[in-house]
Amino acid sequence: MPDKRTTLANSSLLVLLLLAVITSLSMGTVQVPPPDVLQALMGNADPMTAFVVNELRLSRVVAGLLSGAALAMAGCLMQTLARNRLATPGIIGIDNAATAFAVASVVGVGLSLAPSAMALAGAACATAIAFGLAGANGTRGYRFIVAGIGIGAIAGAVTQVLLSRVAIDAANAAYPWTVGSLNARSGNSVLVLAIGLAAGYAILMLISRALNTLQFSDAVAIALGTRLKATRILGLALSVLLTGLAVSVCGPVGLIALLAPELARTICRPGKVPLTASALAGATFMVVADLLGRTLFSPLEIPVGIITAIVGSPYLLWILLKPSRRSLT
After folding, report:
1. Which helix (H) or strand (E) holds 326?
2. Which residue range forms the structural domain that includes residue 234?
3. Can you give the pTM of this predicted structure?
4. What digits encode the pLDDT tens for the residues 87-109?
């Protein structure tokens, strides 16, 4: 049964997310009052308002909401598996590998798979290589993180090589994948992400008790009845799935996976893996970051990945400089 603190935290994050969504649908080159936004969503607005809200902005907000939630849940999972606050898909190279494979599909290098499928393949390859290089430590310890950083650097270099060897039009089409953007996202990719996120969340809720025990030592987790190997493999597979699907929609917006779980752990009850709070926080961060990118220097648009990097990089430095904790909680 959820405790009062966690329930209050999730409810507060849900309210903030709804406010962010309404604000994002309201603001832009054409301003739409919030009451008119609600009327448009219910199908009662005039044709112009309905077009602006439902056709131009809603799909983008939905893409941001889903991708932010997926990245945040993947980050929370990876941090729990590695017992390290820095172990997020972006930092250990999964984002960059997924991006490299997606860019390869976009620029056309003889690969006919869809970007979403290629992003999943890239995320899986990066994770398998990092896991292999980490050896007996698996997803635990700094060796896994260092291996992932190296893989991410190589994947980033591959992306740049691919972009440098194609025509300028193809490079421009692939550019949003390299910085993170929600502009003109594929409806099919968003649908696949929605299905994957719903399935992943349902599975995580079923194994939430086992995930909670991973925050303790292996001996304690085993004593509590947790099947460590199976739980870690399933958690790692779900983290890869969520990351690959999210990157196929928004590109590498990696710091969402760092910021959202940290906020969720701060406001929720210690001792639990805050998957729901992380998802809500990640969705809110992504929607707000995209809103800022669209409106701060309008009509010039700043990709959402750049906004999150500006906000999240100082926090990453703070984590690195702050004395480490023994536990994620």
Report:
1. none
2. 4-321
3. 0.87
4. 788 877 888 888 888 788 777 65
